[in-house]
Description:
Distance between the termini of chain C: 21 Å
Radius of gyration of chain B: 22 Å
Helix content of chain B: 25-40%
Number of strands of chain B: 3
Order of helices and strands of chain C: HHEHEHEHEHEEHHEHEHHHHEHHEEH
CATH class of chain C: Alpha Beta
CATH architecture of chain C: Alpha-Beta Complex
Distance between the termini of chain B: 32 Å
Number of helices of chain C: 16
Radius of gyration of chain C: 21 Å
Largest sheet of chain C: 11 strands, mixed
Oligomer: heterotrimer
Number of helices of chain B: 3
Strand order of the largest sheet of chain C: 1-3-2-4-6-5-10-11-9-7-8
Strand order of the largest sheet of chain B: 2-3
Shape of chain C: globular
Strand content of chain B: 5-15%
Helix content of chain C: 25-40%
Structural class of chain B: alpha+beta
Strand content of chain C: 5-15%
Amino acid sequence: MTTTAGTDVYLPFEDAIERYEPIFGIETHVELGTRSKMWCGCSTAFGAEANTHVCPVCLGLPGSMPVVNRTAVESTIRIGLALNCTIADWCRFARKNYFYPDMPKDYQISQYDEPLCFDGYLDVTVATEDGPTVVRVEIERVHMEEDTGKLTHAGGSTGRIHGADYSLVDYNRAGIPLIEIVTKPVLGTGALAPEVARAYVSELRDVMRALGVSDVRMEEGSMRCDVNLSLNRPGDGWGTRSETKNVNSLRSVERAVRSEIQRQASVLDSGGRVVQETRHFNEDTGRSTSGRSKEQAEDYRYFPEPDLMPVAPDREWVEQLRAGLPELPSVKRARLMGEWQISEFELQTLANAGAIDLVEATIAIGVEPSAARKWWTGELLRVANDRGLELESLKVTPADIKHVEQLIAGGALNDKLARQVFEGLIAGEGAVDEIVAKRGLAVVSDDGALLAAIDEALAAQPDVAEKIRSGKVQAAGAIVGAVMKATRGQADAAKVRSLLLERLGVDEQ
Amino acid sequence: MTISRDDVAHLGRLARLELSEAELDHYAGQLDVILQSVARISEVTAGDIPPMSHPVPMVNVFREDVVRPSLSRDEVLAGAPAAEDDRFRVPRILDEE
Amino acid sequence: MSDLIRQPAAVLAAAIASREVTAVEVTQAHLDRITTVDEQVHAFLHVTTESALAQARSVDLRIAAGEQLGPLAGVPLALKDVLAMKGEPTTAGSRILEGWRPPYDSTVVERLRAADIVILGKTNMDEFAMGSSTEHSAYGPTHNPWDLDRIPGGSGGGSAAALAAFEAPLAIGTDTGGSIRQPASVTGTVGVKPTYGGVSRYGQIALASSLDQPGPCARTVLDTALLHAAIGGHDPMDSTSIDAPVPGVVEAARRADVQGMRIGVVKELGGDGYQAGVAQRYAEALEVLQGLGAEIVEVSCPHMEYALGAYYLILPSEASSNLARFDGMRYGLRAGDDGQRSVEQVMSITREAGFGSEVKRRIILGTYALSSGYYDAYYAQAQRIRTLITRDFDAAFAKVDVLVSPTAPTTAFRLGEKLDDPIAMYLNDVATIPVNLAGICAMSLPVGLAPEDGLPVGFQIMAPAMADERLYLAGAALEAALVDEWGHHLIEEAPAL
Lengths: 509, 97, 497
């Protein structure tokens, strides 16, 4: 169905993909978790009061000079190795010159035509009708740069730039090491483009976590994605591409690709021209809005940074780092498939849900593997998807799962009650025990109370008793159901059944 | 290699300089002269000569990832033309970057 | 001790250490001198009276307590206003930094304090060090003590004039294309641009990062060497600083010997276009060196003619980037903020109001040279020329120990004479610029007065990177021979103020 958002028209995805081939690229910025900033010793700790982690260097005071953080270089090399890149023998930093109030020097120290890592790839798996398919996303480059200060906008009604009267700048974030990872254009994914894009970002995130170089929290901004996309008719040359920023979750990556395919297809279908522009993704609407026109590319006047010496990692150092790489996610998944005895598809479901680490952590503290998987990919994933959240932001921890499983094993809870416990955890009602107490969640194990409920149910459905006595034991289900309803799910269904049959003098078969 | 008034205006925008009309003419003329004299360097066939960006042949100058004291917030904001809420106050921004 | 202000630093330091005089007396004498003459000379932008006297008092106390202090303890110094000094005004000669007081010290200042050198104040300079006459200072020009109607050189005219006017026995300058050496040349004083990376640039307001060097200035070669040793050396805050001990400059200055030294006369520097009196004194100095046992050899550095062009592309390019931070947002001047205008407008109005014409000219030129489509023909090509010039120097130094030339083509010209002709102004640096492009070291010292105008002529000695001691070896020998011939240092002939 063709829809319209603002002045943009969106063709149905199936129609769009029937006529056009999408080519997309993803630029990801990862904030490294180093203790100090890229060029100075200021702390990178999150959440400090404004402008308390600032020094002459990161404030760009006249006369200040940068000095490279060794750990940042190391982390970049490790990321490059994990992404199968070539590590440069020799490279330099470059100045990217432009004016913006969040940039203390009004230039950003980055890398231009000499990135530290280049020509790599990351294999990602997506589910297709024919089963899981591996797509190789090629990596153009991985390079080092610095983050900017943080702007808040005052005086307007929305807190956004447009309509603001003035802005306020906090430079705590300025100078934090930022790694930029750029894919080569990804071709030939067709209708799978949104899934491939999402799978790429998800896998990339898992790689960063495995390396321990960043906490890669998309919602906190330590990992940010820009999505580039163009469409062309089969056989034609590449189309004009747009850039979509502010893509802050895996789901948004998928939606941004999908919606941009739909929008550009509509433009092209109507004989229009796709404008080279930067668009802003909106989480709520799942669409993007037009930002700055980039018809004329910015002239950043790059030149090699004269205040910094070239970075020339010797091969010994690189091999040392390569040898010290942890088990990468793809290798780990193969191992888990074996250990957990699950199929690749099941594993991919776990991976797509961002659940692998959580399941592993849950198993690590003693929960039975299938129970761990059941909760994370079942009830919790359902709730996460409903609310458009990531699993890990649900406020349910592996320890909570363990606790609940223990209560179930001990008979204090059943599955239905457990779901209510999770509901309470997600709503922030407190710890597991507090929720159980507050909500009065307890399996009714008092036989007397159960028998009373059974008798009531039997009285309400007299013909069922006859059916059961005459051998149709399945009819017991109706009574059990009634008792469960009456006890608000707090009875143990199996126990109810057995008490019922005993009551009626019928043997279990 | 002639540098025009419009060129100077464009460069002024790139460099955030609000040049006056008189300055646009003045600089265009002067820069033209300067550029002609520096243009001599194109006489040198230097295609295969590596550009020198650092006179000192050092590489891998690093510092350890150690936290050092920052300035106090008062020191940071001391020179600020305008400050509010412990932050630098800057005029309204038109474009998202 | 009579006439404290006319004594060299080494002599003052010894007198202070032996308690013949106090550091406070010495500092006060110089502060008084500043009060007397600086209205005419205008070398100083800001005199740090309180902190200077406090530092001097501290020196006296510690000497009295029997402490052994450094070789320049208690000696006063004038500091070019391009170096950050915590809590004191630092303007770089510009309106855009009027009133700014840095919250930190440059490394040079830290080392001066550690050496117990007494900083008297901040000296005048061409705005952001762009110039060869100090006429581009936003705070008015400095006047050459030899002739107050003439320029003291630039960009570090204030420091050189302070020395020549006996307002301080020591000074610090910075040299990007001759800004220490050319003022030294036209004021009859000594100035050295150390090997690039030899002195920390941390806290030095940057002009062209790949060319800038802070350096020592004084009235004698030995004083310059002592100051060089005090400020030089590796700094972890400056990634471009050399991780090696300071060359043995003091020892070399004391040895003062050119016996057997091979001295290369650069064919391309010192021929046509040089003032007659300059050429004459230059030739005479060569004869003196020969007489001292040096061997004079002619060498050619064929790419020298392209140095000016390369320099006036590299410098503006790097400067346009280094000066971008002056946008009125975090410190310094903010103009045009009426609460309605956008940040882009306020930045533009601020920079237009805060920068002088020479600065704006170079920013525009640099922005142009770096812009897409022009980068390769201009900036990149200039950097290639730089490689060629460096190779020329390397080839020359394979044959000789030092190279020489006149420091500048002329003696001090009149104020206003070259202001309207940027190219004429730039030509002042034709002999000094190649040194910065290659990152090697050089010294200018006075070798006489030009007969036609009675103004000082400077002689430039150049040495390979990291061989700064050779400058002092040759410079001190030449100086000694000339002082011997004249009976006094040349600066004693400067007219009384």
